[in-house]
Amino acid sequence: MKYSEIMVRYGELSTKGKNKKDFIKQLGHNVRKALQQFDDVEVKAQHDRLHVTLNGADSAAVMDRLGGVFGIENFSPSVKVEKDIDAIKATALAMVKEIFKPGMTFKINTRRQDKAFEYDTNHLNDLLGGYILENVPGIQVKMKKPDLTLRVEVRMNGVFLSGQTIQGAGGLPVGTGGKAVMMLSGGIDSPVASYYAMRRGVKLDMVHFFSPPYTSEQALAKAKELTARMAGYSGGIQFIQVPFTKIQETIKEQVPEGYLMTIQRRLMLRLTAAIAEMRHAKGIFNGESLGQVASQTLESMMAINDVTTMPILRPLLSMDKTEIIKVAEDIDTYDLSILPYEDCCTIFTPPAPKTRPDLEKSRKYEKYIDVEGLMKEALDGITITDIRPNDKFLNQNEDVFAELL
Ligand code: ATP
Ligand code: MG
Fold first, then answer.
1. Boundary residue ending a domain (167, 197, 232)
2. What phi, psi does 156 have (nearest 5°)?
3. How many independent structural domains does the chain possess?
């Protein structure tokens, strides 16, 4: 079927009262951005719907993009016909026939904006329902939960028919929830946490710590490529890479082994908070899940959180690893996350990090190093990259990909 437009329904934001205007504007903006590669597509946001007029663009490709835009509850590919009852009937029948399977139930659901149209909603429901029953042997009418609801909308500029409703990404439009920074490693968890943060409308900047020569170029490329996958949900993301080698080496030299990890994490968080403040971000997200590893106990969180008053948000806090992996697969980050490039923490992780670090001792041992000087040097060494959806950074020819396939 050749569709003329995709009709997009909003999710939660239709209940948001006074913020509604901003939400619709942001969603319209995000949808336009997501569809910018389609030159002829037009996007028109209205109070309860958004209309994406295809003007010949490939509907499947457009819907694929729409599926990644937060704030969309669902959408329906629609066909526009003239306000002529025979044309409406013919298109309705063709649509049903395309989807029909034996034993299928259906109903017609008509909305009429153009009150001057000669048929009212009941009349149209009856007419079209009768016509389908006559022409599709075996189909039955069912009012509650039919297999197929054929929606007919009589608007001022034509009649729109649709037979499918496709689930959208849900959540809130990215940008409506303010800006935060995400601590992105190359692991499984932080991309999933990023997904959940963006789903609540938060615009993210990614902060990534890397430690050459202990970590490779490929480890950095992997974090960037993960960012590119996430960028599909927000149009584009700034990737902030922070050199962490000197800090790690200094900590390894100066701090008792049981506290290496805690002090490293405190420094990471101090730097992330400083970056967040510089960029006027209002919070820090990470991929921690309670009890997963030594640094993710309540005692550890207390000893690490101590360095900032900025809110630290942990979307994965109560999720099990198996659940997190499932989401990583769904959002298409898992295959990248499991590529075996060392990340900066694993290398300097002592064999037995303290699972219950003491807050006072953490504060004391941190004083063994020049926190301010080291931070300044790291912040001076930051590099920022603008990452677009699906940008590539990894060397795809590496053997490691072949091994994994
Ligand atoms: P992940 O899969 O996200 O790496 P993890 O289970 O491996 O998580 P940790 O390595 O302990 O857990 O890291 C906990 C969190 O700290 C990460 O989810 C991430 O938010 C942050 N983090 C860890 N390493 C880095 C890094 N190199 N750069 C930025 N953030 C990091
Ligand atoms: Mg990790």
1. 167
2. -65, -35
3. 2
